[in-house]
Design brief:
The chain is mainly alpha-helical. About 75% of the residues lie in helices and about 0% in strands. It has four domains: about 200 residues, no CATH class; about 55 residues, no CATH class; about 45 residues; about 130 residues, no CATH class. The protein is built from 17 helices and no strands. The longest helix is centred in the middle third of the chain and has 37 residues. The two termini are about 45 Å apart.
């Protein structure tokens, strides 16, 4: 009985999804192309995606195999939709319409229409794949009901806007009529999950705070949208004024930016036009900026070539890392049992590291540009300094304990570390507050900690900490 209920629930929830998805597909295709795909074609593409996802999941296939399988399946769905729109008079298994599709001459707008159809079918395919992976629980079905209801409401607003503001009447009656079967199927699906699957018999317990938050956000959105419509003429004038101001600033800034860019990428060729007083036959723009001494010219050439080589190596290294990560992800195996294990996402750790690096870089840029105004800012960068040195601060470490840990590993920097910790203590617990001399001393201590002289020691500590952490994992 449970298997029958599960199959019936999957069928009903799938029909729910098809109702609101097809409403949007039909509306957009009718508005853009003047023609749309049928409900049967949408259901076929959606169902084929579900079947293919269920068949290919849980067998330990490689990611590249799954991607190729879904690309082939989506291509078949696109071919089926194109046949129904452009070649309905030909049998679907007749190859004549396929050869005609690839040989006929098309206008640019025809290609735009085909690309739009490809995008719509691709979105239907992705929706079917997501549906196959989604659990059919009470809370999930209620959430999908809310999403579908919101989709119908937004569709109604879009139709009214086009009809009232633009004078465009989209002849698409089926998309609006699908809300009735959607509501009926939703009620049945929610009832099945509550009765047949032991769902929660109260109305979303513990969701009172979420309901209040959603209501507040809805009220704010309504107020803001109403204010925007009422103040639209004033906002238009403000936008025009801002555009004129930005144009004026651009006319003033662009020459400066152009000069800087030309200096960075063209080296000594800063001036493009020869000077009126230069001798004939001699291009002043090709002269070096440091023509007074030969060693300055040599230094200029070395710096220019060095920057070019470093940039090329950086981009080559970045591309190689991306290729390695992509190939590693593509040829990794998926989970054999989709219920108890999940495929490891290799991109997530790298994304976190990249985001952490960008944040630390932004903090460093702000620290250099604005300076450090508080001891807490210095302690924050000191914590990051310790993490990059292989000594991350634990959640239970107080600033004093963290400072002792750093001083134990970097005894030569004990005075600088204690200066920053003492400045933080005075700022937090001191009655008179931190004086400017003490803050300046802490800033100088931080500049000493950043010195490249201590980079080898920091690198050694980081390598040792990683080795110890791996040994601890293996011992477990």
């Amino acid at each position: 009985m449970k298997v029958k209920n599960s199959a019936l629930l999957s069928l009903i929830t799938g029909a729910m999804e098809i109702c609101w998805i097809y409403s949007w597909v039909s509306f957009t295709m009718t508005a853009v192309l003047g023609n749309t795909i049928s409900l049967l074609e949408t259901a076929a593409a959606f169902s084929f995606a579900i079947v293919l996802t269920n068949v290919s999941t849980g067998h330990g296939w490689r990611v590249v195999t799954l991607i190729i399988t879904h690309i082939l399946g989506c291509s078949l769905a696109v071919a089926y939709v194109l046949h129904g729109i452009f070649y309905p008079s030909y049998p679907i298994f007749n190859t004549h319409w396929i050869s005609l599709f690839f040989t006929v001459a098309r206008e640019p707008m025809d290609w735009v229409h085909h690309i739009f159809i490809l995008i719509c079918v691709g979105l239907i395919w992705l929706a079917g794949t997501a549906f196959a992976k989604r659990r059919k629980t009470y809370s999930v079905i209620c959430a999908r009901f809310d999403i579908g209801l919101a989709a119908f409401f937004i569709l109604l607003l879009a139709k009214l806007t086009l009809r009232v503001k633009g004078g465009i009447n989209v002849d698409d009656s089926l998309s609006s009529a699908l809300i009735y079967p959607f509501l009926l199927l939703s009620i049945i699906a929610i009832g099945i999950t509550r009765v047949g699957h032991g769902g929660v018999r109260r109305f979303l317990p513990g969701r009172g705070g979420s309901g209040i938050l959603m209501s507040t956000v809805s009220v704010v959105i309504l107020i803001v949208s109403t204010s925007v419509f009422l103040l639209l003429p004033v906002l238009t004038q403000v936008a025009d004024t801002g555009q004129r101001v930005l144009k004026g600033l651009a006319l003033w800034i662009l020459p400066v930016v152009s000069s800087v860019v030309r200096f960075m990428f063209m080296g000594g060729q800063v001036r493009s036009d020869p000077s009126s007083g230069s001798p004939p036959g001699k291009d002043f723009g090709s002269e070096s900026l440091f023509a007074d001494s030969w060693w300055m010219e040599l230094l200029e050439v070395i710096l220019r070539k060095g920057i070019e080589i470093i940039a090329i190596m950086f981009f080559a290294f970045t591309i190689a890392i991306l290729i390695y990560l992509i190939m590693r992800w593509l040829f990794s195996r998926t989970a054999i049992n989709s219920e108890t294990a999940r495929n490891k996402n290799h991109f997530l750790p790298w994304y976190k590291r990249l985001w952490q690096f960008l944040r630390s870089l932004w903090k460093a840029v702000l620290g250099v540009a604005q300076g450090y105004k508080r001891a807490s800012e210095l302690f924050s960068v000191l914590t990051e300094w310790g993490r990059r040195s292989g000594l991350p601060r634990l959640m239970t470490d107080t600033p004093f304990e963290f400072g002792i840990k750093l001083c134990g590993q970097f005894p030569k920097l004990k005075m600088e570390i204690e200066t920053i910790i003492n400045a933080l203590t005075i700022e937090i617990y001191g009655k008179e507050g931190l004086k400017s001399e003490q803050l300046a001393s802490a800033v100088n201590a931080w500049y000493t900690l950043r010195s490249p002289v201590y980079w080898p020691r920091r690198l050694k500590m980081r390598i040792i900490s990683k080795i110890h952490s791996r040994q601890g994992i293996h011992n477990l």
